[in-house]
Amino acid sequence: MQTFRLLCLAGSTRTDSYNYALAGTMAKQLSLTGINATLISLEDYPLPLFNADDETEKGLPDNAVRLSKLLAQHDGVFIASPEYNASLTPLLKNTLDWISRVPSDGRDPFNTPVFAIGSASPGKLGGMRSLAHLRQILVALGAIVIPEQISIGSAGNAFDDKGDLTGDREAAFLNNCASKLVQTAQRLKSLA
Predict the structure, then answer these.
(1) Which residues form the NADPH-dependent FMN reductase-like domain (predicted)?
(2) Which pLDDT belongs to residue 1?
(3) Does the chain have fewer CB atoms within 10 Å around its N or its C terminus?
């Protein structure tokens, strides 16, 4: 069986972030199925606020280049996006903007991996509005984003002490999203 590498991250660095918990739960689910899954925190890749003048004067930040290469090295990426004012976080948007500026030297960070998205929120909508914007941005960057996604409402009660989802419905959505991400990544890798 081929080895598939999947990357999981969250658009939040907040302490006890529900979305980092969701990204961790996805990484755990993928690992349980034998997939090589890696969970990263954007806190480990700080970036300045995107400014084209700074890019011209100082060049690309090292962390933008590192993240671009990291995405391109994986067959699939899961992004958990919090919802801020009915959209994605400034942190996530800024990160995607910087990565999009890195010239591709082989595998493209948006065209190579397959993307899946999810959100966890204390509200009842579960961050659904952020996912529409995130999907739109990723597609504009040339990414393939699977239709299956996961949205966790009332996130304060959604995870147990081990980081697993407490609700059967939410766990089923996570399993479906993980399965479709792996299937799509496998199919596209076999065509390459």
Answers:
(1) 5-155
(2) 44
(3) N
pLDDT, residue 2, reads 56
Q: Amino acid identity, residue 45?
A: Y
Residue 64, both tokens: 């933008």
Q: Please state the domain count of the chain.
A: 1
pLDDT one-digit tens code per residue, 111-141: 989 999 999 999 888 899 999 999 999 999 9
Q: Which domain does 170 fall in, by range?
A: 5-191
- Take residue 130 and report the two structure tokens written for it: 């952020």
DSSP 122-191: SSTTTTHHHHHHHHHHHHHTT-EEEEEEEEESSGGGTB-TTS-BS-HHHHHHHHHHHHHHHHHHHHHHHH
CATH of the domain at 117: 3.40.50.360
Average pLDDT over residues 55-71: 96
Task: Show Cβ contacts of residue 18 under 8 Å, excluding neighbours closer than 6 positions.
Answer: 12, 82, 120, 121, 122, 152, 155, 156, 158, 159
DSSP 8-state secondary structure symbol assigned to residue 49: P
